[in-house]
What we know:
Blueprint: H1 2-37, H2 43-51, H3 58-69, H4 76-81, H5 90-114, H6 118-126, H7 131-142, H8 144-159, H9 163-168, H10 179-188, H11 194-218, H12 224-228
Amino acid sequence: MYFGADIHAIGLSLRIAVIATLLALPFGIAAAGLLAFGRFPGKRLLDLIVHLPLTLPPVVIGYLLLLLLGRHGWIGAPLDTLGIRLVFTWYAGVLASAAVGFPLLVRSVRLSMESIDPKLLESARTLGAGPLDAFFHLIVPLSVRGIAAGSALLFARSLGEFGATVVVAGNIPGVTRTLPIAIYDYAATPGDDATPLLLCGIAVLLSAAVLLLHERLVRPPSSPGEVAR
């Protein structure tokens, strides 16, 4: 019984990480573009809001999401009238993971965008490309490695998310219990050391694989001369 629950926890963590990454990706690209090239009042405030989850305790993020998505929250109340409930479902885990890992995505994409040669952007403007045209046909394609690297970071962060998820999604076996929550449960219950060690090993392997992928993505491509050598 426990083995099946553990398999479900691993699968749920992977599912949440994938969906959280896909959900956050368009918003992350847009936020990175605004912070990299935007000139508007409130830019510093946007920068602060985007990066705030990096310094906030995850349980704080989870509690704020709980207030926002609960039956009386700004988002939860309208959804509740439609019969839609997010709190204490795995969908809430997706939102928690996306919120916690969002700054990592934005930072990686922003650095990639800011490294683009300004002469290319100036040439695009000279040829008549508008801001949106240049963004989607020049900036985004040239930032694809940063986008992929940021997505890998968000995915890895989602795999290890615990604090915000357990607050807003809860710890329901077979429903919202993720891999980190399962490990916590085993650690809090003395007597079985083999299973949590196995789950920890799986978590380490998954995280290491994603980090290795991230390192390959952020490493500058080798020049032809280096490849020849």
